[in-house]
């Protein structure tokens, strides 16, 4: 039986395409981190699991897997896929798991997923999907998990998920959703969990959610929702609702009266000063209010009394008055909650009736205003001037693709509740001082793809809550110095794909709360020592695709929270000692790929260690790298397309990557007899002093002997009689 198994293994190995690994006993094929540009057509027909991660397919053509009809698992992560042709997966009627994460797919066509009648899990996380055509999921009748996280979805049309009759978990987190069709979720009778966190929903989409009778968990955290209205949520089976890290200032007393099964309500990190008794939420067991500015005055007594009467556990602490600051809600006694001269917070009283005068519901001619979503849109209407007279409760205003050219002072009167303003592709050259005056609730401002070359700080006067500013694809030749001093709450600044030549001292003055700075695709040659000094809370710094010739070590000092640094595609040829030492205690993700890097000092990574989770060094020119044996927390290491010189000096790297449970893609560039071989497999190390040395420091003769036998078999063209037809890549 053993001889027969071995013979079968060798026979099947002949059909294993290079550079793949075939485990014929388990019917698995792995072709990882290679240079494949097309799906191999010689994969064994009986293969059940096919792993193609890290290749370069660009397009999955129609019928690409017709030769492997028995596949049950297919992994296409990080394959640079941009398009799925109609019928790409036709013939895969047995497939239950398909992973297409971290590609560049922008559109799902109606027949892109045809033929996957048994599919249970579909992972599309981390693509660029902006649009899903109706019927795209119509053939996935067995799907239970659909993961669409981290895409570019802004709108879900009616019946977009039609056909997903048994779907149980729909993951839509980290998109840019701000409009949901009222029938968007109408075709999901089995859904139990819906994740809509980290989007741009400015109102709770009650009408769309009401179609989900069976859903038990709803994640809506990290959306700019300011108010939950009366009977806003009618979900008969809902038990867990997450509305944390939003912008909630008020919740109506009967907001959850039509969700009678609600048990856990998470309202952490909002702007609530109080809550009314939540009438109708009879099953509620816990309310989380940590991180809210709770005003524990007499106005909070009704809510406090309701908590005790309904036996609801409340988590949260008083922010005011000073005498009660820090006191937990469950420790308060009613006599302690006094009013005195304190102003009543809006959330501790009944929501006042908004005036409904005719003018409050009007909409500028040629525009569309949605009273349900508090949105206004005049997108692509060839307008020369910014329209006015939008409803006063508008929270999102979309004015994209109109040739405004300038934004005059007081351009948006009466929009105190506006949260998100879209001015992309409007040919804007000037943002006048006072242009945003009166937008006291504005959080998101999109000015992408305009002609701005300078900005005055006064342009942001009156918009102190602005947190996300997108200035990508403009005409800036330098960061507009001092512009951000009126923006104390700025978190994210996008200045990608401009023509910025340097980052000078004072450019970021006032941006003390900045966490994410995106400067990719500019022409930056120099970063001044103190340029980043004001941004002490910076977590992400993206500098890829600039003209830096060295790591800006001096500029990195004073950034204790920096966890991600991208230097890809900069012409840095040499890397000296301790270049990352200033951020060594916090850095987790480091991108050094595609730089033409020729030499890395043995001490370049001094200070870096277990905190590093991902390191990208692919497509460089060095022949060796420093000792990284203390990088014990690595989850991703990419060493593809690096011409390593596989001699005895590289033995420590060879030994180290052999111990890693990671696919690193390291190959030998020299000497000639090793060129093209994986560093793991090269036999040039067999004669090195210390080869086969164990952890105790003693040579292992059995290991050396077996390695020699393996080497002879390779030279004679024989394969070892094992389940794998080749060793792992």
Structural notes for this entry:
40% of the residues are buried. The strands form eleven sheets. The chain has a 14-stranded mixed beta sheet. Strands 25-26-27-29-31-32-33-35-37-38-40-42-43 form a 13-stranded mixed beta sheet, with no helix packed on it. A two-stranded parallel sheet has the order 4-6. It is globular, with a radius of gyration of 30 Å. Residues 1-14, 341-360 and 694-729 have low confidence and may be disordered. It is mainly beta.
List keywords for this structure.
extracellular matrix; disordered N terminus; 13-stranded mixed sheet; repeat; disordered C terminus; Cys-rich_flank_reg_C; 7% helix; 729 residues; mainly beta; 14-stranded mixed sheet
Mean pLDDT: 85
β-sheet strand percentage: 15-25%
- Shape from CA axes? globular
Number of strands: 45
Low-confidence residue ranges: 1-14, 341-360, 694-729
Which class of secondary structure composition applies to the elements? mainly beta
Could you give the distance between the termini? Answer: 28 Å
How many helical stretches?
5
Helix content: under 10%
Largest sheet: 14 strands, mixed
Strand order of the largest sheet: 1-2-3-5-7-9-11-13-15-16-18-20-21-23
Q: Roughly how many Å is the radius of gyration?
A: 30 Å
């Amino acid at each position: 039986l053993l001889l027969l198994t071995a013979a079968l293994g060798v026979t099947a190995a002949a059909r294993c395409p290079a550079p793949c690994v075939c485990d014929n006993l388990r019917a698995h094929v792995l072709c990882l981190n290679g240079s494949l540009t097309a799906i191999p057509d010689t994969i064994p027909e009986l293969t059940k699991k096919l792993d193609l991660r890290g290749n370069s397919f660009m397009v999955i053509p129609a019928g690409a897997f017709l030769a492997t009809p028995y596949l049950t698992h297919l992994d296409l992560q990080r394959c640079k896929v941009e398009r799925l042709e109609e019928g790409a997966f036709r013939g895969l009627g047995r497939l239950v798991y398909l992973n297409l994460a971290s590609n560049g797919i922008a559109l799902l066509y109606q027949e892109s997923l045809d033929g996957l009648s048994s599919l249970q899990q579909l992972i599309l996380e981390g693509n660029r999907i902006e649009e899903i055509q109706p019927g795209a999921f119509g053939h996935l009748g067995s799907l239970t998990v659909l993961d669409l996280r981290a895409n570019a979805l802004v709108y879900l049309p009616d019946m977009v998920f039609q056909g997903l009759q048994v779907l149980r978990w729909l993951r839509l987190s980290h998109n840019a959703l701000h409009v949901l069709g009222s029938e968007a979720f109408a075709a999901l009778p089995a859904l139990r969990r819906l994740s809509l966190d980290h989007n741009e929903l400015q109102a709770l989409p009650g009408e769309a959610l009401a179609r989900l009778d069976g859903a038990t968990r709803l994640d809506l955290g990290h959306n700019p929702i300011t108010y939950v209205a009366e009977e806003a949520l009618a979900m008969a089976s809902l038990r867990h609702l997450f509305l944390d890290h939003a912008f909630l200032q008020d919740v109506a007393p009967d907001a959850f009266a039509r969700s009678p099964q609600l048990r856990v309500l998470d309202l952490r990190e909002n702007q609530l000063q109080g809550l009314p008794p939540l009438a109708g939420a009879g099953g509620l067991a816990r309310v989380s209010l940590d991180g809210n500015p709770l005003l524990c005055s007499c106005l909070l007594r009704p809510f406090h009394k309701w908590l005790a009467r309904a036996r609801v556990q409340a988590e949260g602490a008083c922010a005011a008055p000073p005498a009660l600051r820090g006191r937990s809600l469950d420790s308060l006694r009613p006599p302690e909650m006094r009013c005195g001269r304190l102003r009543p917070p809006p959330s501790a009283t009944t929501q006042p009736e908004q005036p409904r005068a005719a003018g409050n519901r009007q909409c500028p001619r040629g525009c569309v205003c949605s009273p349900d979503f508090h949105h206004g849109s005049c997108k692509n209407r060839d307008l020369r001037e910014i329209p006015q007279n939008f409803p006063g409760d508008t929270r999102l205003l979309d004015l994209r693709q109109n040739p405004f050219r300038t934004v005059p002072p007081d351009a948006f009167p009466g929009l105190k509740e506006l949260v998100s303003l879209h001015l992309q592709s409007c040919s804007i050259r000037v943002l006048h001082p006072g242009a945003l005056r009166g937008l006291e609730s504005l959080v998101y401002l999109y000015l992408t793809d305009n002609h701005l070359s300078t900005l005055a700080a006064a342009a942001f006067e009156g918009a102190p809550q602005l947190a996300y500013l997108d200035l990508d694809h403009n005409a800036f030749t330098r960061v507009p110095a001092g512009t951000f001093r009126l923006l104390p709450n700025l978190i994210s600044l996008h200045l990608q794909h401009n023509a910025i030549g340097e980052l000078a001292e004072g450019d970021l003055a006032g941006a003390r709360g900045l966490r994410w700075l995106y400067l990719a695709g500019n022409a930056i040659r120099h970063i001044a020592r103190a340029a980043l000094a004001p941004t002490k809370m910076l977590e992400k710094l993206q500098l890829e695709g600039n003209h830096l010739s060295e790591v800006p070590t001096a500029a990195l000092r004073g950034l204790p929270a920096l966890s991600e640094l991208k230097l890809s595609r900069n012409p840095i040829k040499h890397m000296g000692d301790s270049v990352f030492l200033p951020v060594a205690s916090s850095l987790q993700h480091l991108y050094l790929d595609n730089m033409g890097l020729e030499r890395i000092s043995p001490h370049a990574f001094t200070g870096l260690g277990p905190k590093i989770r991902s390191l990208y060094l692919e497509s460089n020119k060095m022949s060796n790298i420093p000792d990284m044996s203390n990088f014990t927390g690595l989850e991703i290491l990419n060493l593809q397309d690096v011409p390593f010189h596989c001699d005895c000096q590289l033995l420590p790297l060879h030994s180290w990557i052999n111990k890693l449970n990671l696919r690193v893609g390291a190959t030998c560039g020299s000497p000639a007899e090793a060129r093209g071989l994986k560093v793991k497999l090269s036999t040039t190390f067999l004669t090195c002093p210390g080869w086969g040395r164990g952890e105790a420091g003693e040579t292992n003769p059995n290991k050396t002997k077996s390695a020699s036998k393996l080497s002879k078999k390779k030279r004679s063209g024989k394969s070892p009689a094992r389940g794998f037809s080749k060793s792992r890549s």
